[in-house]
Amino acid sequence: MVLAPGKSSSALALLILLAAVLLPCQTPAQPQENPVQGVATDARLQTAAENLASIQRSVEAKRNTLRELREQLKSLEDASERQEAERKIERIRNEIAELQQSFEHIALGGINLSILADQPEQPIDWRVEIEEISRPLLSSLKELTAKPRQLDSLRRDIDRQENQLKVIEKALESIRLFSTQDLPPAATDPIRQLLGTWEQRRDDTERALEISRFKRDSLKSEGIAWRASSGEAIKEFFTGRGLTLLLAIAIGTLIWLILKMVLKVYLRWAYRTPRDIGVTRAPLVLYSFRLATAALIIVATLMVFYVRGDVLFLTLALIALAGAALALRQTLPRYAAEIRLLLGVGPVRENERLVLDGIPLLVESLSVYSVLRNPALEGVVRLPLHAMNDFASRPAGEEPWFPCQPGDFLLLENGSLGRVLRQTIELVEIGIQDAVLQVRTRDLLGQNVRNLSREGFGIAGTFGIDYQHQAICLDTVPGRFREAILERFRQAGFGDDIRDILVEFKTAGASSLDYQIYLVLKGSAAKAYFKAQRLVQQACVDTCNREGWVIPFTQITVHTAIDTPESGPDHATSTLAQPAAGQG
What we know:
Strand order of the largest sheet: 4-3-2-1-5
Order of helices and strands: HHHHHHHHHHHEEEEEEEEEHEEHEEHEE
Number of helices: 14
Mean pLDDT: 77
Number of strands: 15
Distance between the termini: 81 Å
Shape: elongated
Radius of gyration: 53 Å
CATH class of the largest domain: Alpha Beta
């Protein structure tokens, strides 16, 4: 795969920048020592030696203090003083132990001594682990809300102390009233003591109130100073967490742009087309690319937070990943079913036929939104990929997709003849005489509809002549009727539309000799469906008139009852003439 010079250089520069940001700088071993590095190493050793000497001096001083305290402990007899001396001795011991650990840590070059200790494997308590992980976040939230919480606590203290002062003043007023009265000596001293006690309580409460107000005013003044130094706070943010967040966003965007360019180049090379055909022709490649891109961006973001040492962002990122994992646990079965569809092993496959809401549809593509289309209908249906698991497709074969197309003539169930004007996935518009009828597509498929235009149609009729023409009814009459029908259709302009014609003697009726007439017409004559029936009857009548054949009437006998005194009711008969049965 060969890239254009401009794109190749830009892609190479982006890759080098990404590697410089993400990967730690590693320098191969040099056979000769760098003078600058040697000076820096000597400086670090000198500083470490000074620290060791300072620690050792501190240890000696604390040991001397410890010896003095032990000597004093022997001479102390008071229990509280002995307890205080023992606490000091324990505190100094702990400080000496910590200084000795620091001495060893510096002297050994900061190695991890816990690896050398044989410690039994401790069981993992997930509650403790979660607490350790969430502690930086909670600490940050606590620091963020420390000042508002202090102000709120001080306000509540001030309100409580003010209410206490009101109650104390009422109590003092009551005590002063009693002190002005002439009381017996037995009650005067208790009243005087009670007054002094409540005056002391008032003074203590006023002092506490002044302290609370002073703390509140101090916090508010700190708020004013903080707002005055907002520029420094903003600068600190942009050089700290703001810079960390900006680096994470920049690296994530850089990775996404690089991989998107790689995907576009691959698709153009694989499918030899400049169009974006990832969704339609390579959905699995597209989904794999998106998954890999998301994983790489997440790893790079965590690396930025880790390298920058921002524990808060790292904790928030881990919590977000944990939430995403919990959500993925619920949606993983759905994603697995969608992958089966994309791999072509699911219940629905591309270029196969399925039925949606009673309408057959062709599965054109399976992707984020699958496209379904009926070749004979206008419009498409777009369904999300997970919804396709509710259907089952099968090979389409040579089956028709719809019983008609625009321009076809349909014979509806009610006997009406209509012309299809437009058909979509939702509606079919049919023109009947001077009106337009809209029928839902699925309802039309459920009806018994005859398409006269697709494969042609046939019309059947019966015509009868009188019995006096019995001698020619089998040979002469059928031929004359056939010739007359063909001529009549040629005159009407439908001569070429007749595919077959049948004229045969059918039956000897009660008053006529009946003939069965059946015509098969092409679909191009569908618009003349009713006219063709009339043309047949016209041709037969015209033949009878020309040949002098009689068209009989049906003889219906009606019996009429006549009552006579002698013989009772006698039956008289009368005859009514009607046209022969079966005539059109």
